[in-house]
Amino acid sequence: MALLEAFAAPLDEGNPAAAHAALLNERYTNWRTQDVLDDVINREFDGNIALVSSFGANSVVLLHVAASVAPNVPVIFIDTGKIFGSTLRYRDEIVARLGLTDVRAARPDPTALATHDTDSGLWLREPDKCCAIRKVAPLARALSGFDAWISGRKRYQAGMRAELPLAEAEGERIKINPLAGWSREDLDAYRKLHELPEHPLVADGFRSIGCMPCTTRVAEGEDERDGRWRGRDKTECGIHFGLAAFETDGSGI
Ligand code: SF4
């Protein structure tokens, strides 16, 4: 049993999840992405793992690989209430195309919105607080009860993602980053090989797509995430900073 093995792993520093992640990183060295996903979804965390997707610019690749091994894997989509209409339509198209059967929307708590974002302009005044209410708290609630989750982050996206491991501990939960080592060219090649539709905003110059007010086009030569929260120091929404420490009872802030 993997968790028992994890307790015996040499990198165990009193944190079973960290030891478990270290064991998985060792096990999955040189594994194909499809095999990693098959193992984590159908065996290692069977029934206790969810995939989190923004249905953004590159999301279709991870979703396609996951659907090929487990179309019933729970897929959590954070519907912040600020998402592009084209993303919602793209989500529906991809879900139908891949035959995903368990796509769940994680939405902000109405009471938190009524208390902290009455004019819907919190994103402009306090984007960190807006992300906390509209993204981090909903995801923390949606993941409660899961032992692990799958993210689509890649190392080439730079910034805080440059050292991304395939498996990492997040409190007592494990986070799997199956595409960590993929390049942008790998993603494009996979999408073309399988004739998967591209998010419609990519052709319009958007290369990392999140909420409408906080996403801009990216110029040639810019990092693809330069279009997110443009003009601010902010580079991440916070869902990768540690959900375990987050409240799951409603407010999340
Ligand atoms: S990305 Fe912008 S609109 Fe979306 S939750 Fe964060 S601050 Fe709010």
Task: Walk me through the structure.
With 253 residues, the chain is α/β, with parallel strands linked by helices. It contains 9 helices and 6 strands; from the N terminus they run αααβαβαβαααβββα. A hairpin with a 2-residue loop joins strand 5 (167-170) and strand 6 (173-176). The chain starts with a helix and ends in a 60-residue tail after the last helix. The model is unreliable at 1-11 and 247-253 (pLDDT under 50). The protein binds iron/sulfur cluster (SF4). Iron/sulfur cluster binds at residues 80, 82, 123, 127, 130-131, 134-135, 210-211, 213-214, 237.
What's the topology here?
Blueprint (H helix, E strand, L loop, with lengths): L1 H7 L7 H12 L5 H12 L4 E4 L6 H11 L5 E4 L6 H14 L4 E4 L3 H7 L5 H4 L1 H17 L4 E3 L16 E4 L2 E4 L7 H10 L60
The protein binds iron/sulfur cluster.
Iron/sulfur cluster binds next to α8.
Radius of gyration using CA atoms only = 18 Å
User: Helix fraction?
Assistant: 25-40%
Provide the list of bound ligands, each named once.
Answer: iron/sulfur cluster
Number of H- or I-type helical stretches: 9
Low-confidence stretches: 1-11, 247-253
Distance between the termini: 37 Å
Shape: globular
Strand content: 5-15%
pLDDT averaged over residues: 88
Please state the structural category.
alpha/beta
Strand order of the largest sheet: 3-2-1-4-6-5
β-strand number: 6
Sequence of secondary-structure elements: HHHEHEHEHHHEEEH
Main pleated-sheet profile:
6 strands, mixed
